[in-house]
Structure prediction request, 138 residues.
Amino acid sequence: MKTILNVIWLVLSGFWLFLGYLLAGALLCITIIGIPFGIAAFRIGVYALWPFGYTTVERRGAGAPSCIGNVLWLVLAGWWLAIGHIVTGVALCVTIIGIPLGVANFKLIPVSLLPLGREIVRTDQPFTAAAATQRSGW
Prediction:
């Protein structure tokens, strides 16, 4: 089922949202200071391309730099990307078949607003890599 939803998502909105994140990442990577933000945009863009079967979790210990970075992200790119998710989500929710896709768009809004300090993981493994390592004792 995830594959079918991902293919429909890719055709209806995923590719266009991916291009939006790619554009935001490229613009942010122009300066040295913007490179971490650009990398975050690329990471979220891949998540927006194929979202079903993945989720985001908070990274423990991300700290103050990610908080400051999130404020900068919100001002520079977050609003525009969130507006793209809202518009696409509302358009997809017009049809009954598009409702799951619209809900997935709304699920992407928080990560598009505040992406730093988050990690994208598979839904069958809802823990960050650092948390998994800490649990195993390594």
Notes: The chain has a mean pLDDT of 83. The two ends are 35 Å apart (CA to CA).
